[in-house]
Amino acid sequence: MLIKKENQKIWTANNPKEEEFLTQPTKLVDFDDFNKKELQELVLHMRTMMIASRGVGLSANQIGLDMKVFVAQEADEDGGYKGKFYAVFNPEIISSSKSEEEDVEGCLSVPNVYGTVSRNKSIKVKGQDKNGREIEISVKGHLARIFQHEIDHLNGILFTSKSEDAKKIDEL
Ligand code: NI
């Protein structure tokens, strides 16, 4: 069984051991090491955890798994979700727009901290789906930002290291 008790919560930078894990690059997923059902369950679990935490993206290392995979879905204005749900294994950015855009980001693994990060406006990503099939996805705008934030996670990079104005906002 892939999902253990320690994978039922979001790991955060508030805990030194978890922070160390979050700032290490993750391992590529070798599809020979897992069966289809395990990876299906993993994606479902990550989706459930993302929704429960009201996040728009979640990487496997954020739940303590050393695997290169993230899930993402955009939120709508009413706190629900819109558009397509993505689960991308072994993602790699193969091209990105020259133009960048600044916006404020937060992260489930850095609770209550927000800061401005500059991201490429659009990117093209290659990777694999949960069945190991090669996929290519072009994303722009907020979804491109989410993808870049998650791919950074999988490379051990938290958004706070890319933001000059990240600061803690007290919970209302
Ligand atoms: Ni994050």
SSE layout and pairing:
Blueprint: H1 16-22, H2 36-52, E1 57-59, E2 69-75, E3 81-96, E4 100-107, E5 110-120, E6 122-128, E7 134-140, H3 141-154, E8 167-168
Antiparallel strand pairs: 1-2, 2-3, 3-6, 4-5, 5-8, 6-7
Bound molecules: nickel (II) ion (NI).
Features:
172 residues, alpha+beta, five-stranded antiparallel sheet, three-stranded antiparallel sheet, 3 helices, 8 strands, 22% helix, 35% strand, globular, binds nickel (II) ion
Short description:
The chain has 172 residues and is of the alpha+beta class. It has helices at 16-22, 36-52, 141-154, and strands at 57-59, 69-75, 81-96, 100-107, 110-120, 122-128, 134-140, 167-168. The longest helix is centred in the first third of the chain and has 17 residues, at 36-52.
Quaternary status of these chains? Answer: single chain
How helix-rich are the residues, as a percent range?
10-25%
Order of helices and strands: HHEEEEEEEHE
User: Ends: how far apart?
Assistant: 39 Å
Q: What ligand molecules are bound, each kind once?
A: nickel (II) ion
Radius of gyration computed on alpha carbons:
15 Å
Polypeptide structure, described:
This protein is an alpha+beta fold and 172 residues long. 22% of the residues lie in helices and 35% in strands. It has helices at 16-22, 36-52, 141-154; strands at residues 57-59, 69-75, 81-96, 100-107, 110-120, 122-128, 134-140, 167-168. Bound molecules: nickel (II) ion (NI). Nickel (II) ion binds at residues 107-109, 149, 153.
